[in-house]
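User: Structure please.
Assistant: Input sequence and predicted structure:
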Amino acid sequence: MLESLTADSFRPRLRERFKLQLDDGRLDLELVEVAEFDAGGRAGRAPFSIVFRGPADPALAHGIWKLENDRLGELELFLVPIGPGQYEAVFT
């Protein structure tokens, strides 16, 4: 499913909550940015990134996290911390 997602899949979800599954509960993250990059003439999906914002504590390590959104369903995304409570996923 991840291969079929594009920046346009996420743009309508800006400001929506994504539930991140933790071992001992869940954490709500808000989608705050969708950025598309120049594909450089490459065929297929244009690369893009999405940024989530949530509480600074607990701080999440980079890695694959399970998120759930009412409209997109369940996604397993590789998130990288980019600031306190901010996480980015890049799609190439």
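The two ends are 14 Å apart (CA to CA).
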